[in-house]
Amino acid sequence: MRKLIVGFLLGFFICNGLLFARENLTDFNEESIPIFNEIILKKLWFGIDDLQVRRFVSITIQDGDTTPDVSRGNVFTTSSNTGATAISDLDNPRVGHIVIIVGGSAANSSTIADANNFNLSAAFTAGLDDVLGLYVQADNDYIEIFRSDN
Q: Which domains does the chain have, with CATH numbers?
């Protein structure tokens, strides 16, 4: 039965123009089904051809970091800072990506001014559960696309 399912999925993906590395099919098991379902959804519903299934895992911005490295993801959570911390730039941004900053603490919350590298609707204070979405237009050029003050 498992071979029948794998054969069906392989045929489905080939018919949709997707190529699978051999390793992806040899490790197929019941735990793989959610990943395959996500790929199918991405392909059919959203029209996305890449096979990289990206999970939105939050990366913690360390205490006092005023220029967090955003190269390893899209979602970043601020820490409880030991003192006032103003984020002035983002290190290693990728043009065209969206960076989401989530407030992780109400103690000495990180702030971002509506100035210099950041084009915001107003200054942002990353209080607990507050969210700011930024579009990376270029290095040192970030535009607010959404925010949620929780």
A: 2-44 (no CATH), 58-148 (2.60.120)
Instruction: Describe the chain by its helix, strand, coil percentages, rounded to 5.
Output: 25, 25, 50
Length of the chain: 150
- The per-residue pLDDT string of the chain (150 residues; one tens digit each, 9 = 90 and over) reads 444 444 444 444 444 444 443 334 444 444 444 454 555 555 554 444 444 445 567 899 999 999 999 988 889 999 999 998 999 999 999 999 999 999 999 889 999 999 999 999 999 999 999 999 999 999 999 999 999 998
- pTM above the 0.70 mark? no
- The residue to which tokens 């290693």 are assigned: 92
